[in-house]
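# step 3/5: fold
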Amino acid sequence: VQLQASGGGLVQAGGSLRLSCAPSGGVTFDRYAIGWFRQAPGRKREGVAALSDADGSFYYADSVRGRFTISSDNAKNTVYLQMNDLKPEDAGLYYCAAATYRGLGSTGWGSIDPTSLFEWQAWGQGTLVTVSS
């Protein structure tokens, strides 16, 4: 099973894009945390955002907090990444992935960075985001 990211494209700085993440097989998101990652040429892959429907946890990297929003639509079994006020440094190949996670109750995962701590799997091919200045 893989998660397929889509919705990338070319946008001017200050513009917006919405990425979508959906499983290629019979996987539902209620037992997984879903994360968005990106990798620019010559740079290491970085975690951008993550969420868990199991306990309502969210995570955003400092570089995107306030501009990006991660959300889920359970009816469509899709996770979205709304990206606003895009900057040239946001460009790269964006991937989504899943990590087994059934929630921690009302506390959620707190202030940890799940993108660097969880074991992520089901990587797809990614979708390219290009931001022109």
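# step 4/5: annotate
The chain has one helix and ten strands.
# step 5/5: archive (pending)
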